[in-house]
Amino acid sequence: MTVDAARDPSPAARPARPAIVDADIHNTWPEPAALDSYLPERWRRLRARLGERLHPGAQYPRLNPAAARTDAWPPDGGLPGSNLDLMRDQLLDRWSIEHGILNPLLEAGELLNLEYGAAFARAVNDWQVAEWLEPEPRLRASITVPYEDAPLAVAEIERRGGDRRFVQVLLASRTLEPLGRRRYWPMYAAAEAADLPIGIHFGGAGGFPTTAAGLPSFYFEEHAGMATVFQDQLTSLVFEGVFERFPRLRVVLIEGGFAWLLPLMWRLDRTWGMLREELPHVTRPPSDTIRERVFLTTQPIEEPPQPQLLARLLDRMDMDAHLLFATDYPHWDFDAPDRALPGVLGGARRDRLLRGNARALYRFG
Amino acid sequence: MRQHVLGPIDEFPPGSRRIVELEGRSIGVFNVDGRLYALRNRCPHQGAPLCLGPVAPLVTAPCPGSYVAERAEVIRCPWHGWEFQLSDGRSWVDPEGTRVRAYPVEVRGGQVLIQMR
Amino acid sequence: MVRRVIDCVVHAEVASVEQLVPHMPPHWQAVVSETGFRGPYVATQPAGAPTVCAPRFARPDGVIEGSEPGHITRVLDRWSADVGILCCDYAVDGIRNPDAAAALASAVNDWVVETWLPADERFRASLVLPIAQPEAAAAEIDRLGRHPRVVQALLPVRSAAPYGDRRYLPVFAAADRAGIAVGLRFGGNPGNPPTGTGWPSYFAEEHAGMPAVFQTQLLSLIAEGVFERFAELRLALLGSGFGWLPAFVWRLDKEWRGMRREIPWVRRAPSATIADRVRIALQPIDVPATELGAVLDELPVDDLLMFCTDHPRWQFDADDDALPAAIPEPVRARIAGPVARDFYRLS
């Protein structure tokens, strides 16, 4: 169909609104070759021949092309999220984003060739600096790392730690082992030393079936089921004593939703109470630790049958200082800053969610 | 009831979609195989530009694994994929409770006319 | 004490393979004695874990609590229960030899039918299945599913593929033919890791992580249209808890509104299907007492929960905590018996 206007035609004349921090934006390249100039020759050649070899994960047709809003394709033909001008137009300017945190989902951690993964991660981070952070002062970035190899990941964290435009270390939610396991501890040590949170984002592939019951058939299951992965990862971090071992470490769970957290806290407290003999290193009730160290982005926002149930949930969850608004631009499950949070949430709470909590966590002045 | 002239019918050929501004509202006007539709260009879910989404026959299934393309055309919101019938703006999953305004549109004397309330 | 209680989960524990040998065909009796096969040696829970048998029920004489009908009779007496639904966690699903798994499953079911059911008229049975072989599992349901005191087919919640996967259709078809419920139970040994992200270090993670597997299975059964294919299917969740259900249902409905096109045979919101077809055993009560009212309020249907003791599993310390007073009436009275009576079609 011919379309007169490729984008929402009523953008510009909007009243100024309070600034927002967007805790989850997905930048990507217009096409894969755009990363080549940041890769050493050896890897460029290998990449051209063999591409990216990953754990197979699971493959589904996903609601929309590139799993993106269908109105987010740039006119230059690149992928959604690859064009900074369009990102400014559709997101940063449109919604008065004062700071946006880039989480590129470029799979460095999933690459089976670990040495290549390290080179790839370094290239992604160099690309982020050159093409996103330098030209756009509102943006911040997450450090992409080859997280399945701790020394290589630590090297990349230490390389970037001095550049405070990198505000966290980025992992994917499905990993080779549960993220509380010791193989990941050196990475947590490095992040803690650099005063960087660990961000764990929806997705990834660790080489096993994506659920404890094998591989689901539909993207519906994969998408809705990612909450179970976040539950398992948080359980691992808590029961392995990661938060005791790294007393200043903070973790951000990104794009997992959050309504599942309250019942999980009840569950973890109960199991800990029954099986404390197995967990002597877990010295506090899990819910206490979670309320202190774990942060979550709001997207995809929960949509209970009545909006006041969301307010009631937040009251009971007692994580008001730990929830971070995110849009997930340009993906299809995007949350619009002016519509996603129901009005019933109230002014002070909305203010914390939309900007206050992220400013504090990521230390924006 | 107010009527607006949108233009000659050959500016709205089959397969076309145009976004127009009328009375401060953004409206999508569609010609699907000769049938004209007009919907408010705003999804009731989170305010997405609904009329920029893909238009296709509604897919139903008599049983798992069977896919039937119905004659009814729906537009899918470009963001979260909610489906709305072009003919009356009703959502597929909640036809009574969730709908978008549909405007009567017709051709008279070679001109496309839309009715607004 | 509330009258007309139904205890919808009590465990018949296989103490050793010797109990099953008399119920095996000669070939498998010979295999047991010639190979020293002791049955599955990996179970869902470590045998000595306090969660398997609450410390106050542990017997000092080495006898496994729940291994004899008299143990469960005493539980039903204590609770004035009209009915006790036996569930057996014997891990045949972990046996790779398809014929051994089928033989063991049949032996367990025959052991229950022949030695447990006659011991107490209140007992009802659930079928253990060689679920790794769906056709064999269906055959076992066809064999025993119409027994008047068999009320459900048990599926371990951890499986090789999600139960909505079309390979399992024969199992649901057989349950449908027999007119029995399907119960997903805590546990399972399919060979996959117990999480979608690898092998956890601690049993505590598996214990706390089991609800996530129930969620995965519900997602699958709904997405694959199993409830549409089998309009009479009744699904019980046994050992899942329920505190997680409201948030889960909100999410499913939200996803369905946008993703319906991928699974167009799902014509109703998932919350409606769950309200109509799914019931949940009360233990574990994974909700603090102060939160019970709010959670019950948010469940998709009032008649969701079915009382059980889950004996001898460690789920509560004092009897008063098994069916807490914090649950408001009249829901509490329905949980005690009527919901299970309706669900399992008990007279």
How is the largest sheet of chain C built, in terms of strand order? 1-2-3-4-5-6-7-8
CATH architectural designation of chain A: Alpha-Beta Barrel
What global shape of chain A is seen?
globular
- Number of helical segments with 4 or more residues of chain C: 12
- What is the overall shape of chain C? globular
Largest sheet of chain C: 8 strands, parallel
Corresponding CATH superfamily of chain A: Metal-dependent hydrolases
N-to-C SSE series of chain A? EEHHEHEHEHEHHEHHEHEH
How much is the radius of gyration of chain C in Å? 19 Å
Number of strands of chain A: 9
Regions with little confidence, pLDDT below 50 for 5+ residues of chain A: 1-7, 9-13
- Give the helix level of chain A as a range of percent: 25-40%
* Pattern of helices and strands of chain C: EHHEHEHEHEHHEHHEHEHH
Distance between termini of chain C?
21 Å
CATH superfamily name of chain C? Metal-dependent hydrolases
**Portion in strands of chain C:** 5-15%
The pLDDT mean of chain A sits at 94
Radius of gyration of chain A: 20 Å
Q: Whole-number average pLDDT of chain C?
A: 96
CATH topology group of chain C: TIM Barrel
Task: Identify the CATH architecture of chain C.
Answer: Alpha-Beta Barrel
Summarize the structure.
The complex is a heterotrimer of chains A (365), B (117) and C (347). Chain A has 365 residues and is an alpha/beta fold.
Structural commentary:
The complex is a heterotrimer of chains A (365), B (117) and C (347). Helix content of chain A is 36%, strand content 11%. By secondary structure, chain A is α/β, with parallel strands linked by helices. An eight-stranded parallel beta sheet of chain A has the order 2-3-4-5-6-7-8-9. In chain A, strand 3, helix 3 and strand 4 (139-144) form a beta-alpha-beta unit. In chain A, helix 3 packs parallel to helix 4 (150-160) and helix 4 runs parallel beside helix 5 (185-193). Chain A starts with a strand and ends with a helix. The relative contact order of chain A is 0.13. Chain B has 117 residues and is mainly β. Chain B has strands spanning 2-8, 16-22, 25-32, 35-40, 55-60, 68-76, 83-85, 105-108, 111-116. Chain B is globular, with a radius of gyration of 15 Å. Chain C has one domain (5-343): Alpha-Beta Barrel (TIM Barrel), CATH 3.20.20. In chain C, 37% of the residues lie in helices and 12% in strands. Chain C has twelve helices and eight strands. In chain C, helix 4 links the parallel strand 3 (123-127) and strand 4 (150-156). Chain C starts with a strand and ends with a helix. In chain C, 58% of the residues are buried. The mean pLDDT of chain C is 96. The chains are: A alpha/beta (365), B mainly beta (117), C alpha/beta (347). Chains in contact: A-B, A-C, B-C. The interface between A and C is large, with 67 and 66 residues.
